[in-house]
Amino acid sequence: MKYGYFDDTCREYVITKPDTPEPWANYLGSPEYGAIISNQAGGYSFVRSGANGRLLRYRFNSVPADQAGRYIYVRDRESGDYWSGSWQPVGKPLDLYRSECRHGLSYTVISSSYSGISTETLYLVPLGKTYEVWRLKIRNEGGRKRAVSVFGCAEFTNDGNYEQDAVNLQYTQFITRTCFHRNRILQLHNECCRRNADGSNGEERFFGLAGAPVSSWCGDREEFVGPYRSYANPIAVERGDCGNVPNYGGNSAGVLQADLDLEPGEERQLCFVLGAHPDAEADKILSEYEDPRCIETQWEELKDFWEEKLCRFSVHTPDENFNHMVNTWNAYQCFITFIWSRAASFTYCGLRNGLGFRDTVQDIQGILHLVPEMAFERIRLMFSGQTSCGAGLPLIGFHHEPGHVKLPGEPGYDYDPYRADDALWLFPTVAQYIGESGNIRFLDEVIPFADHGEADVYEHLRRAVRFSLEHGGAHGLPVGLYADWNDCLRMGEQGESVFVAFQLYQAMRILLDFARIRKDGDTVSELEEQSRKLRKTLNDVCWQGDRYLRGIRESGEKVGSRDDPEANLWLNPQSWSVISGCADEERARAALETVHQRLNTEYGAVIMDPPYREHAFDGARMRLFLPSVKENGSVFSQAQGWLILAESLMGHGNRAYEYYRECSPAEQNDRAEIRRLEPYVHGQFVEGPQSPHEGRAHVHWLTGTASTVMVACVRGILGLRPTAEGIQIQPAVPSDWKEFTIDKFYRGKRLHITVKNPNGAQGGPVRIVLNGETLPDSLVPFGQLENENELVVTMPGADPAQ
Ligand code: NOJ
């Protein structure tokens, strides 16, 4: 079933059928002032921390779902009938009530039409501001005068700490009150022991109205909703009067009512504004919105902000769904993961007190093709989270102080022990950063270690390799430590991880390139020697004829071996054998073929098969999950990105695209009742064939899938691989793509690329004509670029992959 469509002209996803299988969300603002909003206007807001700065209350995983929210009620003062500007919470019958939700880039517009009155509510956080605006336009569409009341309603938390607010009621219910001042409700906290800068008492939040006088107000949730009622039928709306009631020691809310008389065809505009600012500031903020142009200008600024980023890379291929995702939605999701990390969503409530190392280093990759300069600071931060022994700290705290961080094992350290993979993600990220930016001098930049000392980036990378080499098991492969990429796989101090071994091999190849550039002969020899050894071990010990193992336990038992009754084939070692360059052509083909035969489903390839039921070892913590769910054999979505990339690197465009389509959210737009998650964002995983809900996706928005699939599209399918010297171009596309174009902004130059595929190839070496001149190979040297460049890339005649 279809609930909406992509509107590329304005980069919006438009929900036309409001009863979506789940609340479909969007992000507003930034973690400085963050807001999440669903197509029903459900969601919450916070200042700086979803866990500790929560402003609006949201009841996670509750019944009714997706409440509370940013509700606007409309009441007909003659008939007493009332509805909401979003379909929920009142939920009028859908044959009488029409609704549309447009999720755009950091704004959402929800429109309604009912009983001759139309509304349009724009929700946004203006750029650089720490408050949110709900701009309501209300219009009388009929031929007679209408008398209506509008109620804007926000449910405050009593305490900014999410957990305290939810459960410590003997405290949090008695610390706040609300009062009304001119055009706004103020919420005060712990009033007697706080003093604001302007001399007033108590931390203040406000919910105000501009554009019409307040005709009545309510600061108390229970008084607004009424006993044994809900947001579907609040007593104050039903009555048509908020009663001017403050809260004193109960649940605070902000409800403001405005009574309007609308002539036929007349439209009025109101702005509700919510934030955490002292009253004097609130007064100033609200007064700006008395001018209706203010919000329009801010909306334009927001659109320009995103357009400026996204216009740096766009594709026009025969597949519209691919275009929607690569040009807008996958790109936007990459920014959201980059900016918000795993902070807050409808799944995460914001409790993680920092940036996960691997997640963040991966997230960076998702925006590098667009704004490498934006990634720069974040890359430096991540290097400062590397310890002097070379490992990555699993979490970089929000108050990270390089040079002073306690390490795993030391007193005062309170997070997980080292993981085997964290620092190794730095290698592809740095290589891609240098390729996009040309900033090879970054290798010389000196950055402190988390614990003590400092070194240049090149040395940081050398230590990361050394850490993995020094933590080797009986076969010389890196040990698994607390976990590798797979959080559920605990191979321990002696058990070895084949996935990490492939990562290490990739890391050494990247470092070799850097060592050659720096003419560091000793490091070149050492890395050549070590990488040769590692490759041999991987191929001698871990190859099983049609697959690579996943690991070797301390006892010597193999994980992911052909004869294992369960989990005898794992996806990641197969894709990474190709990505790392470790498998030869024959083995790469065989491994990928095994994946296709054994792991592929309608929704992508499962992470391993069969799921654990009875034969898991102690370190296989995925057995905690149901079979075909999460790491226990689901279609783990991030891993699809690596599979697509691996097939693309082999020149198997058809196969790469088959996997892409299976896991692309946009491809499921017509079957949204199965996938359930937003059709415009990737999730963390999709339930596999052994679940009764095969195809159902989970954990929206904040997932490494976004960046990994983006990298697979840009570097894999589209085949654009920037290096220090220029861009390598080698697409791997479905053979029925006869022509497509790519526009790319590259180090200040514009590239207009037309790829021609007259003979229906799906990969292989290409011929490139740059500004009329044929290049000798697939590298477009940066030095040969003009400001504007026309590139014609012709794919080969014979199909090398068949
Ligand atoms: C989710 C975590 O955020 C990510 O870091 C991890 O790699 C995957 N789970 C796989 O376990």
UniProtKB/TrEMBL annotation:
Enzyme class: transferase
Domain of life, source organism: Bacteria
Domain Glycosyl hydrolase 94 catalytic: 305-719
E.C. number(s) listed in UniProt: 2.4.1.280
Keyword annotations: Glycosyltransferase, Transferase
CDD domains: GH94N_ChBP_like (cd11755)
GO BP, one annotated term: carbohydrate metabolic process
Pfam families noted in UniProt: GH94_b-supersand, Glyco_hydro_94
Residue stretches making up the Glycosyl hydrolase 94 supersandwich domain: 11-292
Official protein name in the record: N,N'-diacetylchitobiose phosphorylase
